[in-house]
Amino acid sequence: MSTPILEISGLNKSFGPVHVLHDVDLAIRPGEVTALVGDNGAGKSTLVKCIAGIHPADSGEIRWAGEPVKMTGPRDAAALGIEVVYQDLALADNLDIVQNMFLGRERGKAWALDEAGMEQAARETLATLSVRTVKSVRTLVSSLSGGQRQTVAIAKSVLWDSKVVLLDEPTAALGVAQTRQVLDLVRRLAEQGLGVVLISHNMADVFEVSDRVATLYLGRLVADLPTRDLTHGQVVELITAGRSGDLGLTRPDTVSI
Fold it and tell me: How far apart are CA 106 and CA 99, in angstroms?
C-alpha cells in the first residue's frame, strides 16, 4: 500500500447548529481510486469542498505528502495539485475545448494569448489520457455530448500537474457508451499515478473502477475498506444504516432501567 498523498484527520464542519461532518479520517493514495459513497445529506459534497478549500474546516488536520497544510481557499488546493470536477462541470458552452481547459489560466499576454501553445497542450493532455472521442480541440462545448463534456472537464483537471482529482458523480445522466468512456478515463487517471476520489451513487460503477470504498453515514466515516473485501449488499447497508454485520458503527450498549 502506497503512502497517502492526502490525509484528513478528525475533520469537523458545522453550518450554524447543523453538525455536517464528525471527526472524519480519510487517506487518498496515488494510483488508487477511492469511491466516496453515502446517502443524500451524508456530507460527501461538504467533505469535498473542505478538501478543495471552498469551506474552511472547523477543526481537524489536512496533511499533504505528510506535511500539515491549511486551506484558506480554492487557490491553495490548486497550488498543491488538487482539482475538483463538479457535477455541473463548470464549462462555458460558448467557448471551445481549448478555451475551456485554460479558462482563467490562459497563457501569454492579455493582448496576445499563446493560442498555439494552449492548443498543443490541450491536444497532448487528451492524447495522454487516450481520449479518442473528441475530433478537434476547437470544437465548441455546446456541440459536445454529455460524455465528451465530462471528458473535457476531467482533462481540464489534469492539465495542471494535478496529484489528486475529485470527481462528483461523473457518470450521472450519461448513457451506457458514454459511461464506459468516463469509467475508462477514471481508471487511466489512477494508472498515471493520480489519487482519485469518485463520488457516486451507482454501485456498479463503484465496484468496477474503485480500489477502496469510503462510506459516509450522517456525517461520519463508518467504513473505509478495499473494494475486494466488500459486497454490494454490505455497501448498501453501510449507506442506509451505518453498519453491516461487524462493519461500521458499533451497536449501542444495552441500557438497563
Answer: 8
